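Annotated sample (chain length 135).
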Amino acid sequence: MGFIGALLAALGWGTDSVLARQGLRSLPPALATGISLCASLAICLIAIAIVGPARFPLAGIAWFGMIGLINFLLGRQFNFRATKRLGAARTSALLATSPLVSIGLAVLLAGEQVTPLLLLGVLLSVSGVILVVGG
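Output written by the structure step:
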């Protein structure tokens, strides 16, 4: 199920770039970020109401609150600005470098191990980015 979930997430993020590019033709990135955040918040509040807020520990809520500030607010703002200037394909290719950040933080903060296969995957991802952005 984890693999299918990751593929569905990739599908969602890939679609996000194309939809954002279309919307950014008529809206500034800051307004697009605000609209996107409001839509996300509405969906999250509905999900919490369905599941029940008492089932969520405060520590988990705090971690995901940080994700909301770093990824959704800042990340979307910078992503939308880049998409408006570079286009969906180039911006998405540059976002493929995020495993480098994830691996570094996972090793430092979560004690995860770096394996040769993981490094090979990162090398291939970064090589692809270089080919797309440089070409």
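Annotation: The chain has two domains: 2-88, 96-135.
Annotation: The longest helix spans residues 58-86.
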